[in-house]
UniProtKB/TrEMBL annotation:
This is DNA invertase Pin-like site-specific DNA recombinase. Keywords: DNA integration, DNA recombination, DNA-binding. It comes from the Bacteria. InterPro entries: Recombinase_CS, Resolv_N, Resolvase-like_N_sf. Residues 1-62 form the Resolvase/invertase-type recombinase catalytic domain. The active site is at S9 (o-(5'-phospho-dna)-serine intermediate). Gene3D superfamilies: Resolvase, N-terminal catalytic domain. Transmembrane segments: none annotated. It comes from Rossellomorea pakistanensis. SUPFAM superfamilies: Resolvase-like.
Amino acid sequence: MKVRYARVSTRIQNLDLQLDAFKEHGCEEIFTDKICWAKDKRQGLENALRFVKTGNTLVGWF
């Protein structure tokens, strides 16, 4: 299973480009964060890491 984590770092950015790309490539579970500060908690990332099991692939946008 492909598990996707998408994040943007400002409130004016949106996740659409990332989400479209990963849906197109068969990611079954998608977790997201919109954070404004480096110290903001990344709940989406924490949830993705808890969800991933042996044999899954965690996919990120670089």
